[in-house]
Write a structure and sequence with these properties.
single chain; alpha/beta; 2-enoyl-CoA Hydratase, Chain A, domain 1; 2 domains; 8-stranded mixed sheet; 47% helix; globular
């Protein structure tokens, strides 16, 4: 585990009792957040505990790190319980599927969507990225389908729509197993990259309301700009000949202008 990183970011922590160890993932998945390597190291260090609780409040992150954590949970011989304390979105949601049991309060949220990414390059690069994202989306859809027993095509439709589930809805659909009590959390998330963040999620779990609103208000901003453009019609532009333009720019008299042109 990267000691320097864990000292700077305190949202990834381990708490132990006599029989149960707890890993809090209150951060992004991958990058400067909780990497797959960090998590596997932590889980292995807790091998003597028969039960491990994973508590999540995360907006997700890298697919690759999420898959590493998912596989580590699936392969563990311990009893693994995931508690969704706030938000369990994107890659955080599919890694949770590796647990033996998933528990959510009514006011927590789980979100599933298609894999996304960016690339710089020519048309070949774009096509390769598109194919890569499709493969990742299919892989993730298979994880959800295996857990929920929902037809994979329906899962893909839910992912394409960026679907947010409350605790009750997640239990009803099979993404979680049962409801649990609310857990107090201390970190707030930037969810502005998502398009359909529920109002309650913005209020309870976002860093700032306006950051969460940023992505969801683009359409309204565009409408407002169109309305403003209607109210202020563009002024008609009349091209000037070179002599007229020279006179305006240099503020010359007609006599001085003639001399300068000659």
């Amino acid at each position: 585990m990267n000691k320097e990183k864990t000292e700077k970011r305190n949202w990834f922590s381990i708490k132990n009792t006599a029989d149960i160890a707890t890993i809090n993932i209150y951060d992004d998945i991958g990058g400067w957040g909780v990497t797959g390597e960090d998590f596997v190291y932590a889980l292995k260090s807790l091998a003597s505990y028969p039960m491990v609780d994973i508590r999540i409040n995360s907006g997700g992150g890298y697919v690759s790190d999420g898959l590493v954590i998912y596989n580590a949970l699936r392969q563990s011989k311990q009893t693994i319980r995931v508690f969704v304390d706030g938000i369990c979105a994107s890659s955080a949601s599919f890694l949770a599927m590796g647990a033996d049991q998933i528990l959510m309060p009514k006011t927590s949220f789980m979100m599933i969507h298609n894999a996304s990414g960016s690339v710089y390059g020519d048309a070949n690069d774009m096509e390769q990225m598109a194919e890569f994202l499709k493969q990742n989306t299919d892989l993730i859809a298979g994880i959800y389908a295996e857990r929920t027993k929902i037809d994979i095509e329906e899962i893909k439709e839910l992912m394409s729509a960026e679907t947010w589930f409350t605790g009750e809805q997640a239990v009803d659909k099979g993404f979680a197993d049962e409801l649990t009590d609310v857990q107090e959390i201390t970190n707030r998330l930037d969810l502005s990259v998502f398009n359909k963040v529920p109002d309650l999620a913005k209020e309870k779990y976002c860093v700032l309301g306006e950051e969460c609103d940023e992505a969801t208000s683009i359409e309204n901003k565009e409408k407002q700009e169109k309305e403003e453009s209607k109210e202020e019609p563009e002024q008609e532009f009349t091209p000037m000949c070179s002599t007229e333009r020279l006179k305006m720019e240099l503020d010359l008299t007609e006599k001085e202008l003639k001399l300068s042109v000659d």
